[in-house]
Design goal:
By secondary structure, the protein is α+β, with helices and mostly antiparallel strands. About 35% of the residues lie in helices and about 30% in strands.
């Protein structure tokens, strides 16, 4: 199953102390295959997005509960189950 995650950061000041841990969390779960893509909204500081592959919504929620931003109540997470249609090879080439 695939999910689209919308992360909103209402206060950058509250989030700043947790951003390094958040990036470590994202990178470790990217390397494991949980996150398929992620990135910040531009201009930066307001949040970001991710595409996730997981077996269930419960798995997504439990994994995100360990994110330092989530643990600090410095963000809100909106999760939607999605169906992947087509993916442009241009997109994968640009990320290299």
């Amino acid at each position: 199953m695939y999910f689209l995650l919308n992360v909103t950061i209402p206060s950058l000041e509250k989030a700043k102390p947790h951003l390094q841990g958040h990036m470590e969390f994202l990178n470790s779960h990217f390397d494991s295959g949980f996150f398929k893509m992620f990135g910040p909204y531009l201009p930066g500081g307001t949040g970001g997005y991710a595409v996730i592959e997981a077996s269930s919504l419960k798995e997504v929620e439990e994994t995100l509960a360990a994110d330092p931003l989530t643990k600090a109540n410095a963000c809100s997470n909106e999760i939607h189950e999605i169906a992947l249609g087509r993916i442009s090879s241009d997109l994968t080439e640009q990320s290299k």
